[in-house]
Specification:
This protein has 129 residues and is of the alpha+beta class. It folds into 2 domains: 38 residues, no CATH class; 73 residues, no CATH class. 37% of the residues lie in helices and 19% in strands. Strand 7 and strand 8 form a beta hairpin. Helix 1 packs across helix 2 and helix 2 packs antiparallel against helix 4. The longest helix is centred in the middle third of the chain and has 15 residues. It is globular. It binds zinc ion.
Length: 129
């Protein structure tokens, strides 16, 4: 077995148009531009190579769409112990102590845990194919 070949995407700052590398799973999340320091969602200009990363936009879609929501929420609950809350407006998670966690926080924890990342990717592909 060899390590999977992965290579970050290339994105562009919407303010100064500087291009910089970004891991695929961070697409759709706000980033601080390394050149001008502005915080915004950078634009994809060139796809890298990845195996089973889901972007933040993918994750938001899984939580929003009726077909995939319960399977996604069940996994987040099992892995992190967090429950999805959807008041008017922005969705977020709460833990058993009632503390609030952002969708970004859940996405980052899942995408940096290879076992969960692969599991969620396979779940998404089973719905999307
Ligand atoms: Zn910039």
């Amino acid at each position: 077995m060899t390590e999977p070949h992965t290579q970050p995407d290339t994105v562009e700052c919407p303010h100064c148009h500087t291009r910089f590398p970004l891991a695929h799973y961070l697409l759709g999340m706000r980033q601080r531009c390394p050149a001008c320091g502005q915080e915004d969602v950078p634009k994809l200009v060139d796809s890298g190579h990845w195996r089973c990363d889901l972007t933040f936009g993918d994750f938001q879609g899984l939580l929003r769409d009726a077909y995939t929501q319960s399977s996604t929420v069940e996994r987040v609950s099992r892995w992190l112990g967090w429950m999805l809350q959807q008041p008017e407006g922005e969705a977020f998670f709460t833990d058993l102590l009632g503390r609030r966690h952002s969708l970004e926080a859940a996405h980052l924890l899942i995408q940096t845990t290879p076992e969960w990342q692969l599991n969620l990717y396979r779940m998404a592909m089973s719905f999307w194919r």
